[in-house]
Amino acid sequence: MTTTLLRGRTLSFLRWPETIDDHAAYAYEDDGGLLIRDGKIVAAGAYADVAKQAGDDTKTIDHRPHLLLPGFIDAHVHFPQMQVIASYGAELLDWLNTYTFPEESKFQNAQHGRRIARLFLDEMVRHGTTTVAAYCSVHRESAEAFFAEAHDRNMLTIAGKVMMDRNAPDAVLDTPQSGYDDTRALIEKWHGKGRQHVAITPRFAITSSPEQLEMSGALAREFPDLHMQTHLSENHAEIAFTQQLFPWSKDYTDVYERYGLLGKKSLFGHCIHLSEREADALSDSGSVAVFCPTSNLFLGSGLFDYQRYRRREKPLRIAAATDVGGGTSYSMLRTMDEGYKVIALNGEKLNPFQSFWQLTRGNAEALSLADKVGTLEEGTDADIIVLDAGATPAMGLRMENIETLAEELFLLQTLGDDRAIREVYVAGRAAKGDMAA
Ligand code: GUN
Ligand code: ZN
User: Number of helices and strands (H, E) in the chain?
Assistant: First the structure.
């Protein structure tokens, strides 16, 4: 049986780094080794130790002096919005009506869906993202296309067909019954097939009738281990419209609460303008708030108060995400760079170890996947990226006077993009190099 041995500077987080000096929060090997067999990491540690476990047929790939990290995880992204990125001049609701819903209507066409799914996953790999939680369009075909493409590449994904039955053009609407039936059919066909996970995906309260939210809750009860993903408290006009549509609700979060949609597998995109009551409700239920900085800046939605949410008496579980196409970059490095600035505008700091924890183990924990991805621990899937902090002339120049790992990570975040991702291993298979070949 062939095994692969990767050699390089390995970095994997053990827990949240409290401060920039909290070196016990991560495992770092200056000369590290990762032994890979059947798509999994079977040994990790100092190269000299790991190499002893290699066999005669082991292929060694030397990535020194580059860093080896777990692949990045994008916890909220819309694959049908590749051709929406860079749409000028609108806030959320106008942006959806003017650009996004018309674009998503094209995904009735299965061939279009397959083409964009392929290009989307190419782009993810190019940027070092090996796991995504993705929204498809309302059309079941779009989710079929996405899962087929992800399965072919053996990429771990969470995805769902969006359910939406009102307040949008007919071409992107389903009904409560068809949304339920299509989601069930997708679960039967794809959930647990290879590395695919189906998510219950009501788009948001504005585009789902009470009947549809009821049926989303029914699905969550029938399939309690499935993820549920939706949007919450992104924009003031959205919040006001939701209040009008659900006049009985205490607040926006209460709408989802009443339909049984809060819980440990529930991922709420944005969560910018939450009241203390709403934050308590998310915290009590173990729900996850997904921070989408490039999108929140681009659409002028607001500043997610990351450190306050973490530090409150009832802390929130937080994930980070691109939210393409409201988001403006496929890169999780660019995303955390903008995240750093959002947090700075809130008068706080996110240190580089905290950022890279978030991109890897933090997002894996938020998606309840840390036993599979997000670390370099033995027994986990071999989704690994190779990072080069001197990838461009400007980065190389800045690297000349960098001395610590923290400084190097911060440079990668501040100036890095897909050029800093030298290689990407998806379940042990080199995927970025393949693309270039
Ligand atoms: N709210 C409902 N749908 C969407 C979407 O596609 N993008 C963003 N950013 N917010 C949403
Ligand atoms: Zn979104």
Answer: 18, 15
* Strand locations in 38-110 (E): 40-46, 59-70, 72-78
* CA 261/CA 91 separation, integer angstroms: 26
Tell how far the Cα of 408 is from the centroid of ligand 2, in angstroms: 31
Q: Which spans in 250-301 are helix H?
A: 252-258, 276-285, 293-298
Residues whose CB is less than 8 angstroms from the CB of residue 360 and which lie 6 or more positions away in sequence, other chains included = 12, 13, 69, 70, 71, 72, 73, 374, 375
Token pair for 4: 């692969």
Q: Which is the closest atom of ligand 1 to the Cα of 299?
A: 9
First vs last Cα of the chain: how many Å apart?
25
Q: Is 104 exposed, middle or buried (0-12, 13-18, 19+ CB in 10 A)?
A: buried
Question: Whose Cα sits closest to atom 9 in ligand 1?
Answer: 326
In terms of Cβ atoms closer than 10 Å to its own Cβ (0-12, 13-18, 19+), residue 156 is buried
CA 48 / ligand 2 centre spacing (Å): 45
pLDDT exceeds 70 at position 1: no
pTM given for the model: 0.98
The helix (H) or strand (E) run that includes residue 147 is: helix 140-153
**Substitution site in 84, 96, 103 for ligand 1 pocket (most atoms within 8 Å of beta carbon):** 96
Summarize pLDDT for 104-160 with one digit per residue, the tens.
999 999 999 999 999 999 999 999 999 999 999 999 999 999 999 999 999 999 999
Name the residue at shortest CA distance from atom 1 of ligand 1. Answer: 231
How far from 323 is each of 21, 111, 170, 279, 327, CA to CA, in Å?
31, 24, 24, 21, 5
| Residue of minimum CA distance from atom 7 in ligand 1 | 326
Kindly state the tokens that stand for 199.
């998510």
Ligand 2 geometric centre to CA of 323 (Å): 5
pLDDT band for position 434 (50/70/90)? Answer: low
**Nearest to 118, CA basis, from 89, 142, 87, 90:** 142
Residue type, position 363, single letter: N
Enumerate long-range contacts of 173-176, CB under 8 Å, 24 or more apart.
173/138, 174/138, 175/212, 176/209, 176/211, 176/212, 176/214, 176/215
Name the residue of 212, 234, 239 whose CB sits within 8 Å of the most ligand 1 atoms, as the mutation to test its pocket: 234
Q: Cα(83) to centroid of ligand 1, in Å?
A: 15
Pocket of ligand 1 (CB under 6 A): 78, 92, 96, 100, 203-204, 231, 234, 295, 323, 326
